[in-house]
User: Fold Glycolipid 2-alpha-mannosyltransferase-domain-containing protein from Syncephalastrum racemosum.
Amino acid sequence: MRFSIPHILALLVVFLFYFGSIRYVSRTSSSSCSQIVENAQYLTAEEDVKANEVVLSLDDEKEGIQRDTAEDGSIGGIKPFPDITPPKEDRSPATDNKPEQEDPFPVCAMNRNSTVLEPKQSRNKTEKAKAAIVILVRNSELGAMRRTLREFEDRFNRRFNYPYVFLNDEPFTEVFQQSILQLTEAKVEFGLVPEQMWSVPSWVNETEMHERMNQLQSKGILYGGSLSYRHMCRFNSGFFYRHPLLQKYDYYWRVEPGVHFYCDLDYDPFLFMQKNNKMYSFTVALQEIPETIPTIWEHTLRFAHKNGLKTKLLRMFGDESGYNLCHFWSNFEIASLHLWRDKRYQAYFDYLDRTGNFFYERWGDAIAHSLATGLFLDKSQVHFFADIGYKHDNFVHCVDDGIMGKCMCPQNEGNFDYGWGSCLPNWEQYPAEGRRWDFKPNGDQVFDGNRVVKRLDLV
Ligand SMILES: Nc1nc2c(ncn2[C@@H]2O[C@H](COP(=O)(O)OP(=O)(O)O)[C@@H](O)[C@H]2O)c(=O)[nH]1
Ligand SMILES: [Mg+2]
Assistant:
């Protein structure tokens, strides 16, 4: 076949037009995508979506590309959720040395047909409580701590960004601190517990203490022979709220390494506490090992007589016949720090501490806190967080809230709420208005405002 010059020119024009347009289209597609990724880098999830729309439309105009939506959801030839990994460049600000987080929904994969659910509460809520997450932990518990923190951030704090206060009776290692900082964007403070908050007080006879510890240990009582456990319980009972790092806060959420959280929390529990005049809260209530608290009930009643207390919630924990062993499990607590800073609680703690029984008997902070709520609060000031799915040791509180729910309860692990040894039924059956039990310094105890019982042995 022979080609004339006009033939050759015509072929050249067709060739240039065809390959030129392919190159043009592919260049604009990828460059607008990386532009979007770049622009969206420091935006919140909510802003991401809006910014994405704006950037898309700006780019469309600039490049003059027709982005018709096809039936399969593709826009201008870009299919929804294509297999595109946005380019990863180091765009972190100089001061921020945290690794870049993987965006679960690459913005260049978004399209106008996507269903985008707006988060119910954005990260930058203006209204916040003066609150912190408080964690007493040892360096050796880093692994369990990281697992718990990952869950805690995912279920709650990623959205609310409350600060953390980590406390330890020994200095935190550099590795521990750096490892924790990888998991959160919230402010984190690491503090040392001062020695005077973690030592055997002068009035405790250490010989007797060791004898009693040996006795409990030989009976196989949990932590019976542990001195550090006793320090921990005493610190959590009477000192943590006085730690310098907590002075600026009104509320705290106590978290421990190894615990689990199962439900997304899309409201601020601190604000809930504040707005509803709640002072203390729990997720699990259960019975204590009796050998660890043989005299705490008697001492609590003595304290009530001495101070002429009028109580409304104490009968949740016992009556004339004694202590029913019920307590709120303090490994989870969201509470007001002012409850403990109150001079009435301080007097109660000092009274208990003077007996030396945090060391002799191994009193737990859960019992001290729970009986204090009984002495000083109404039922309305204590809250059961039914919607916080939680697990500590083998005890789970988690209510499956269905296919539209927010909980992912552990499979094959029963909810402890109504299990053997749970005190949730006691709580639920306790009347909202309370049951009066007044104590007088002369030994009178007045039940329901009229029935008087004399207890001269307690004054
Ligand atoms: N820094 C420090 N933390 C402790 C010590 N003993 C217990 N803890 C912490 O205190 C909390 C309760 O202790 P744990 O052993 O879980 O007691 P349990 O929940 O009663 O079985 C956890 O957060 C522990 O990490 C200790 O000796 N030093
Ligand atoms: Mg624990």
Observations:
- The first strand starts at residue 131 and ends at 136.
- Residues 256, 331, 392 surround magnesium ion (ligand 2) (CB under 6 Å).
- The domain at 131-457 is CATH 3.90.550.10 (Spore Coat Polysaccharide Biosynthesis Protein SpsA; Chain A).
